[in-house]
Amino acid sequence: MWIYEKKLQYPVRVSATDLRMAKFLFAQYGGPDSELSAGVRYLTQRYTMPISEAKGLLTDIGTEELAHWEIIATLIYKLVKGKSPEELEKAGLGAHFAQHDTALYPHDAAGVPWTAAYIQVTGDPITDLYEDMAAEQKARTTYEHLIRLTDDPGIKDALSFLRQREVNHFQRFGEALRRVQEYLDGKKYY
């Protein structure tokens, strides 16, 4: 069980509404390399990790990814707040508005709904940890692209924080991979 603290892990500030940027941010809200995909992936993979340290790491990072999902949601919410249906349509968010108004719904920047097919869970701890490292690198790359798409200092700040967390998670998964490999080598199991 977790204790939820009712504040964001990192503050979210935006200078002005920006529907174009809100649309791009959906990549990290409901895309294949999104915070949602990462959180679900890690919180699912933890059950088949052979050592408690790796299980704990996947739980910690999976939970943190959901906190990052909340940061992205807050950014999108602030960027669309008060915009009319006509403005949303003009920005390419008309289909989203038709189905969800300005409510958040997990889809990618192109409007493709989130699917569990985005996550990989093989049951093989080595394969899953390599997948996790790749996922963190893809998320880092996406954040770098998003940072280049905005001039808003508050958005850049939040996205830079999230980008750095992806780097940290990649490093932690690399450490866990080495420990799991050592454990499995000792068991002579692959």
Written account of the structure:
Helix content is 65%, strand content 0%. The chain has one domain: Ferritin, core subunit, four-helix bundle (Ferritin, Up-down Bundle), CATH 1.20.1260. The protein contains 7 helices and no strands. The mean pLDDT is 96. It is mainly alpha-helical. It has helices at residues 19-30, 35-45, 52-80, 85-90, 94-100, 125-148, 153-187.
CATH class: Mainly Alpha
Q: Which structural class do the helices and strands define? A: mainly alpha
Low-confidence stretches: none
Oligomer: single chain
Keywords, separated by commas or semicolons:
Ferritin, 65% helix, 190 residues, single chain, mainly alpha, 7 helices, elongated
Detail the topology: elements first, then pairings.
Blueprint: H1 19-30, H2 35-45, H3 52-80, H4 85-90, H5 94-100, H6 125-148, H7 153-187
Gist?
With 190 residues, the protein is mainly alpha-helical. The longest helix is centred in the C-terminal third of the chain and has 35 residues, at 153-187. It has helices spanning 19-30, 35-45, 52-80, 85-90, 94-100, 125-148, 153-187.
